[in-house]
Amino acid sequence: MEQLLGKEWEITPAGGATGDAYVAEYDGRKLFLKRNSSPFLAVLSAEGIVPKLVWTKRMENGDVITAQQWLNGTELKPHDMGNEQVANLLRKIHRSQDLVEMLKRLGKTPLSPHMMINNLRPMLQQWCDEPLIKQTFAWLEQQLPLIRCDEFAVCHCDMNHNNWLLAEDGRLYLIDWDGAMIADPAIDIGMLLYSYIPKEKWEDWLRFYGLELTDDLRVRMKWYTVVQTLYMLGWQKEKKAEKEMQQSLHFLETVLSST
């Protein structure tokens, strides 16, 4: 990193699961650096979805370093997720054809429900002693014929409130796009609603977003929320994150029993 910026810059880890993010400071300037971000970051920056991309540089070892404008701000709290501003930004993302075209150029293809459930099948062997997982797969396969989508969009696929940054100037950004894919927008909407919004307020939130709460949308949101929770459980099991696994299993049980 020092060879890119100079020894006068102070570079410190920014945290995160990958360990590839840093904060660089010098003479009142501050940058957010990340190693091997997707080229997708450029179009996200151009659309104002992430903080401004300042530069991109390739290192001698082949790594690509991106530098973004550092913004003073705060991560959203769980109770902030019902905000109209959140719904508006997610709607902008899901309706952007530029984002879809960019991901396609990067080799991404639309992810169908059949592909998602097939990717999860190895979990059945790893969780053979957990009846809830078997019950979950049976439910997913039973509901699969009902899961249809006519319009695919770029989905962020990690609606955690920590990924929403409210800058001091009042602008909202959605960061950490490493898991983005082209899929049914109900993937993002469902996980957000089930995780943060009381059911009696779903219709209000969806009105901000620009959708009606139909029976079809309910089924799709529940199905994708269950699928995403299984993906999360797989990752947590690999990391031996026992506490988080128990929380996810409880969340899964709650979603499955919901109407």
List descriptors:
single chain, alpha+beta, Aminoglycoside 3'-phosphotransferase, Chain: A, domain 2, 2 domains, five-stranded antiparallel sheet, three-stranded antiparallel sheet, kinase, Thiamine kinase-like enzyme
Kindly describe this structure:
The structure is a single chain. This protein has 259 residues and is α+β, with helices and mostly antiparallel strands. The protein has 2 domains: 2-70; 75-257, Aminoglycoside phosphotransferase (APH), C-terminal lobe (Aminoglycoside 3'-phosphotransferase, Chain: A, domain 2, Alpha-Beta Complex), CATH 3.90.1200.10. Helices cover 44% and strands 17% of the residues. The chain contains 11 helices and 10 strands. It has helices at residues 2-5, 40-46, 84-94, 97-105, 113-120, 123-126, 131-143, 186-196, 202-209, 215-238, 242-257; strands at 10-13, 21-26, 29-35, 53-58, 64-69, 73-75, 153-155, 164-167, 172-174, 181-183. Strands 1-2-3-5-4 form a 5-stranded antiparallel sheet, with helices on one face. Helix 3 packs across helix 9 (202-209), helix 7 packs antiparallel against helix 10 and helix 10 (215-238) runs antiparallel to helix 11 (242-257). The mean pLDDT is 92. Keywords: Kinase, Transferase.
